[in-house]
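Pipeline run #58 for the internal structure catalog. This entry was flagged by the ingest filter as a single-chain record with no existing model, so it goes straight to prediction. Upstream metadata was stripped on purpose; only the residue string is passed forward. Reviewer on rotation: M.T. Logging verbosity set to normal.
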Amino acid sequence: MKVGFIGAGNMAEAMIASLITSKILMPHEISVSDISADRRGLIKQSYRVNVYSKNQVIPGVADILFLAVKPQQLSEVLGEIASNVGHQHLVISIVAGKKVEFIQSQLPQVRVIRVMPNLPCTVSEAMSVFCMGGTANTSDRQIASKLLSSFGKVLELPEERFDAVTALSGSGPAFFSYFLNQMVDASVKEGLSREDALMLACQTMLGTSRLLIEKNLDPVDLIKTVTSAKGTTAAGLAVLDKSDVSAIVSQTIRAAARRSSELSAS
């Protein structure tokens, strides 16, 4: 298996690092192209992979092509590689907001899988959601799952769910961090140092997530477990309920999903 990355930004770099660390691929099996000489130099020095300045080289040295460029660059990139790809290529796109149909219209001869990863892939804790293009096959599904699982969890969903996925897992790290930061600031007002408050908040979020996952708990059940009548948790939850935080969260996810839909249509 030979894998190529067109674009060497932070997300691509995180994937490359995980694929090598997990020993799914050896450095010589990975090729990367990027317009930035600095990025090429960094990737070459850090991971000992093959690097190129021209995108059209990648289809000649890899059979699995990751598209990891900015959305506004995609049309140009697809034009550059169009004459170099064929039926032997599987294209895996992590380009935000660009549907399978768009890529397939530019590269009709390839199989396409679209992926929505998220930033925690940089610490091998990604939540990656993928959908299959019409010509992608069972073997492609297995390959994508294997590669993506090297840096986190993997889930297959139909493409019509991707706006909701983008809002929840794509934007979610920012939303969770926003709420965590508010908790830290509030705790500082109660006398904690920011350093201590940040450690407490981060570890509590991490531990809560692991508890929910490993014990297969519903969040509502965990809330009930932590909350005792007339206790501290109940007092805090009463404020959240009175402030209608659930409505605010719903509006937040809806706004992000709508924006995702708008970007996909542009």
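catalog note: The chain has a mean pLDDT of 96.
catalog note: The radius of gyration is 21 Å.
status: ready for reviewer M.T.
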